[in-house]
Amino acid sequence: MRWLALAAAAVDREADRLTELDSAIGDADHGANLKRGFAAVTAVLEKEPPPTPGAVLLAAGRQLISTVGGASGPLYGTLLRRTGKELGDEPAVSRARFAEALDAGVSAVARLGGAQAGDKTMLDALLPAAEALGESFGAAREAAERGALATVPLRARKGRASYLGERSVGHQDPGATSSALLMAALDEAAA
Ligand code: ADP
Ligand code: MG
C-alpha cells in the first residue's frame, strides 16, 4: 500500500522534529519510536506483500505494536489493525469505505488510550481528519494539520505530557504532529 510507504518516508524525514517536540513535553523518543516502527513495517510489507488493503493494514499494525516501545506503538498499531479489520478482504477500497474504516480505527484508539478530543494527543489530529475524510483526502490532511497546531495551547490530560500539567501548555503534541504526517501521506498516496 502506497500510503504506508509514503508514511514511512515522512516519518524518516521528520523524525528529528518529532523527537524535538517529544523532548519538550515527553521523553524525546517519538521520532525514533516511529522511525523504527515504520522501517519494520516497510520491511515486512516488502518481504511478504499481503493481498488486500485490509491485510496490509493488519500486518502493518501488528508490526508497529511489536516494534514500538512507547505509548504510540500500541495506539498506532491499533489504529491500523482496526482500520484493516473493518476493510475485510475487499480487493479495492473507495474513499467512502476507507473513511468509515478509519473512523472505526480512530474510535479504537480512543477506547484503548481513554483519551478524547482536547486532551492534547494524536486524537486531536485523528478525530477531525477521520471526519473530514468523508469530504476528501485533502480535507482530511488539512483537518489533521489544523488539529495538530491546535494542540499548542492545550494542557495534556493523557500520556507522559500530562505529568507536566500546566507546563505542557505552549508546545505542539508530538503524536498529533505525526498523525498529521500520516494524513498528509494518505493524501499524497491518493493523488
Ligand atoms: P511515550 O509517551 O511512551 O514516550 P511516544 O513518545 O512514542 O510514546 O508517543 C507520545 C504520543 O502518544 C503523545 O504525543 C500523544 O499524542 C500520544 N499518546 C500518549 N498517550 C495517549 C493516550 N492515552 N491516548 C492517545 N494518544 C496518546
Ligand atoms: Mg515519548
What does this structure look like?
There is one protein chain. α3 runs antiparallel to α4 and α7 packs antiparallel against α8 (174-190). The radius of gyration is 15 Å and the shape is globular. It has one domain (2-190): DhaL domain (Serine Threonine Protein Phosphatase 5, Tetratricopeptide repeat, Alpha Horseshoe), CATH 1.25.40.340. The chain is mostly helical and 191 residues long. The longest helix has 24 residues, at 2-25. The chain has helices at 2-25, 30-47, 53-67, 72-87, 95-113, 123-132, 137-149, 174-190. The site of magnesium ion has 7 residues, from loops.
Average pLDDT? 97
Give the low-pLDDT segments.
none
Present as ligands are:
adenosine-5'-diphosphate, magnesium ion
CA-based gyration radius: 15 Å
Helix and strand run: HHHHHHHH
End-to-end separation in angstroms reads 13 Å
Total domain units: 1
Strand-residue fraction? Answer: under 5%
* Number of E-state strands: 0
CATH arch. level architecture = Alpha Horseshoe
Helical fraction equals: 55-70%
Number of helices: 8
Largest sheet: none
Q: In the CATH hierarchy, what is the superfamily?
A: DhaL domain
Alpha-beta classification: mainly alpha
Name of the CATH first level: Mainly Alpha
Shape: globular
CATH topology: Serine Threonine Protein Phosphatase 5, Tetratricopeptide repeat
Keywords:
binds adenosine-5'-diphosphate, 0% strand, Serine Threonine Protein Phosphatase 5, Tetratricopeptide repeat, mainly alpha, binds magnesium ion, 8 helices, 191 residues
